Amino acid sequence: MASEITVTLLRFAFLALLWLFVFMVMAASRRDLGIGRNLRAARSADAGAQPGAQAGAPTSSPTPVAPPPARASQLVITDGAQAGAVMRLGDEPITMGRANDIEVSLEDDYASGHHARLFPQGSRWFLEDLGSTNGTFVNGNRLTRATVLEVGTDFRVGRTTMQLRA
Amino acid sequence: MALSLRQKNDAPRSRYIVGFILSAVAVALCPISMWLIDSEVIAGGDTRWLTATLTLGIGALVLYLVIQFKARFADPLILPLVLALNSIGLAMIYRIDLTTSAQAGASQVMWTGVAMAAAAIVLLFLKDHRALRRVTYISLAVSLFLLLLPLIPGLGLEINGARIWISIAGRTFQPGEIAKITLAIFFAGYLSTHRDLILLAGKRVGPFRLPRFKDLAPMFIAWLLSIGVLVFQRDLGSAILFFGLFMAMIFLATGQVTWLVLGFLFVAAGGFLAYNFISHVYYRISSWVHAFDPDVYNQVVGGSGQIVQGVFGLASGGLFGRGWGNGRPDLVSYSNSDMIIASLGEELGLIGLGALLMMYMLLVSRGFRASLGVRDAFGKLLAAGLSAVMVVQLFVVIGGVTRLIPLTGLTTPFMSAGGSSLLANWVIVALLIAISHSARAPQLVDTFEPEESSDTIDLDSYENDGATSVISRITDHNNADHQGGAVRE
């Protein structure tokens, strides 16, 4: 029989092991809570840059994409119930959807509560769908991951079309 | 650790590595606990620890591989959490076998193997959880059949006054455990198609919208079912479980407090009648309220001895517990099934029990996470319902053991001795894994025809109607189904 101290130590070690397991699971589930989101976005940005470069020449972008000095600073609603509305963009990510407690609250029954998110990364804005029911579309393509959003490119959330302006 | 792995490799692979490591740790908890319980028994050549560990380990490996092949994007954390709980459960049952006359260990290990095999089979054959939607009404029929089985003379078995078991070839089985899955499937299927009707129809009274009687019918069925279980099978625990499942699901589907209020009125009425007319319920409640009354404590039928001994056990465990193998679970009746939480609390203390409860919480939160992520309403309701049934069961059993609510005989998921409960809960886990796979899989839909879907219902004329949001939800529905079709192609 092991000595009293060993037994006691093992007893506490087992409790520590149980909690260690719990914390390992919690650490692994962190990414779902959105903490690791910027990491993922950065990666998909790299991946997204290549097809963008290939298609860059033929697409007609209104402003020539010289080294852009600063990020776009305005979000304009071009079509939909709130057409004409202009929103000033800062350095913070913004969420758009039907909910009332977010930056861009849309009067659009086709939009989900938290529909999509725009977030700054370097000198560009990225658009990311937040698991909406009807999807977010850029140039008619449904977003499957965070994508670079160029100035002047229309994107659609529900029945509302928006674009970035410099 | 998870973070550093993720930065090095591409994200999905590292998640599976984390899942694998965590599963290995979870399986290892079983032999570690058994060794801590009594190292001399193991040194003396007892091989029960080996059988248990091998069963768990092989089962875990098989399930891990099945998930890799069949549900690649599934949540990697569900399996380790369940394995850890099952490990601790096996260890506790083994420990109780050593000091009491109970011999549940071998059959529990066998059932663990069977349950894991069943989970693997579910994952192998269920390609898409939406297939279950097609059996909505069949699963209602199956639920009723399963619940009626124990009442058939000759087949049904009455143990301790409750008639919820059937006996086949010397083995007992609790069909009600399987019924909670089929009922969840029925409620998810029914509510995902009728939700909008339930929301929209009915008279408005002040801020509340009273549901029509027609829409109340399933609520009545659920209520009658629970009362039926209570009256004919004399099982308060299952009755609470079934009604709790229904309440949770209808609230999740409609988001209306009216339903909760109505449900609680039903419960109050049912509870009042049961307390006054069903002796079994009366004993349960009196042994809860007057637990420390010597008359009630010593009462032969429906006494409070079990609860009180369980609470004393928890108290003697204190903060750090008495250590594996040092408690007195032999003093509590059913210490390896209904009261396993008290046995664990005595030996692992509040800190150990807290860790176990955290595991349950994480497991349930992974279930709700799958529900949030999945795109179809049926999947959402099913995942949330299955998670909710686990929550209700845990609340009823742990609340009962800790004397927060009257004690009713329910098993602690994954831990209590009892094959049917183990089987049912592993199947629930398989369903959650399958749903989390569809929730996390990248969507294949790239193109979308907005013209087609907006032509089906012209919404512009309804723009300012109060019902717009609901109608848009209907169209959201159509869209979701439409996309669902595209995914399957």
TrEMBL record, chain A:
Q: Which organism's genome codes for this protein?
A: Rothia terrae
Residue stretches making up the FHA domain? 94-143
Q: Which PROSITE patterns match?
A: FHA_DOMAIN
Q: Which UniProt keywords apply?
A: Phosphoprotein
Has UniProt tagged this entry with the keyword Transmembrane?
no
What's this protein's name?
A: FHA domain-containing protein
UniProt lists compositionally biased (Low complexity) regions at 47-63
Reply yes or no: does the keyword DNA-binding apply.
Answer: no
From TrEMBL, chain B:
Q: In which pathway does it act?
A: Cell wall biogenesis; peptidoglycan biosynthesis
**Domain of life of the native organism:** Bacteria
Q: Name one GO biological process term.
A: cell division
Q: How does it sit in the membrane?
A: Multi-pass membrane protein
Signal peptide stretch: none
What's its catalytic activity?
[GlcNAc-(1->4)-Mur2Ac(oyl-L-Ala-gamma-D-Glu-L-Lys-D-Ala-D-Ala)](n)-di-trans,octa-cis-undecaprenyl diphosphate + beta-D-GlcNAc-(1->4)-Mur2Ac(oyl-L-Ala-gamma-D-Glu-L-Lys-D-Ala-D-Ala)-di-trans,octa-cis-undecaprenyl diphosphate = [GlcNAc-(1->4)-Mur2Ac(oyl-L-Ala-gamma-D-Glu-L-Lys-D-Ala-D-Ala)](n+1)-di-trans,octa-cis-undecaprenyl diphosphate + di-trans,octa-cis-undecaprenyl diphosphate + H(+)
UniProt subcellular location: Membrane
Would you tell me the Gene Ontology cellular component terms? Answer: cell division site; plasma membrane
What EC number(s) does this enzyme carry?
2.4.99.28
Does Transmembrane show up as a keyword for this record?
Answer: yes
Keyword annotations from UniProtKB, A to Z: Cell shape, Membrane, Transmembrane, Transmembrane helix
InterPro entries, alphabetically? Cell_cycle_FtsW-rel_CS, FtsW/RodA
**Membrane-spanning segments:** 16-37, 49-66, 78-96, 108-126, 135-153, 213-232, 238-254, 259-278, 339-360, 381-402, 414-435
Record GO terms (molecular function) = lipid-linked peptidoglycan transporter activity; peptidoglycan glycosyltransferase activity
State a single Pfam family of this protein. FTSW_RODA_SPOVE
Report the coiled-coil segments.
Answer: none
The protein in question is named peptidoglycan glycosyltransferase
Give the species. Rothia terrae
